């Protein structure tokens, strides 16, 4: 079983915002880091929400708000589904498919340690399947023709 820990870089940076940041500040960070989501943390570093490009489109642009004057706390998604480093990639893939999520924050011992995307999960599933297929092909070739 391949776990989420295989997708998280140990000691890697997790870019976050606070509820008091402006949407404009968050958009700058999304663009600078070429990412699509920012976890929202409180002053103690606890995950309290998530801000995504989808939140921006639906809760800022479509409602006629301004990015400079709107706070993250006004538009973030709360009650975020999280996963742990020992959760399987397959289980997490099922979550993103069933619930329509694009990103899952990874939390260990109440500490945010990373974010995995649906693309990260899909790429890992494909790599795993390709490896499995290669193993089966080698077994077939090594065993000779199967009758």
Description:
The protein is α+β, with helices and mostly antiparallel strands. It has two domains: 14-80, CBS-domain (Roll), CATH 3.10.580; 83-147, Roll (CBS-domain), CATH 3.10.580.10. It is built from five helices and four strands. It has helices at 23-33, 53-61, 72-75, 89-99, 118-143; strands at residues 37-41, 47-52, 103-108, 111-117. The protein has a two-stranded antiparallel sheet with strand order 1-2. A two-stranded antiparallel sheet has the order 3-4. A hairpin with a 2-residue loop joins strand 3 and strand 4 (111-117). Helix 4 (89-99) crosses helix 5 (118-143).
Fourth-tier CATH superfamily name of the largest domain: CBS-domain
CATH topology value of the largest domain: CBS-domain
CATH architecture of the largest domain: Roll
Form type: elongated
Q: What is the averaged pLDDT score?
A: 92
Tally of separate helices? 5
Q: How many domains make up the 3D coordinates?
A: 2
Any low-confidence stretches, pLDDT <50, length ≥5? none
Helix content: 40-55%
- SSE succession: HEEHHHEEH
Radius of gyration: 19 Å
How many strand units? 4
Q: Oligomeric form of this entry?
A: single chain
Strand order of the largest sheet: 1-2
């Amino acid at each position: 079983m391949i776990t989420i820990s295989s997708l998280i870089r140990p000691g890697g940076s997790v870019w976050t915002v606070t509820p008091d940041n402006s949407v404009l500040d968050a958009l700058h960070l999304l663009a600078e880091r070429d990412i699509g989501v920012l976890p929202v943390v409180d002053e103690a570093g606890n995950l309290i929400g998530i801000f995504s490009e989808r939140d921006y489109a639906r809760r800022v642009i479509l409602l006629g708000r301004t990015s400079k004057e709107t706070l993250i706390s006004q538009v973030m998604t709360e009650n975020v589904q999280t996963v742990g480093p020992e959760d399987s990639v397959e289980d997490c893939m099922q979550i993103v498919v069933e619930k329509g999520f694009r990103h899952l924050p990874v939390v260990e011992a109440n500490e945010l340690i990373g974010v995995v995307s649906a693309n990260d999960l899909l790429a890992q599933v494909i790599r795993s399947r390709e490896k499995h297929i290669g193993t089966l092909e080698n077994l077939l070739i090594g065993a000779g023709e199967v009758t």
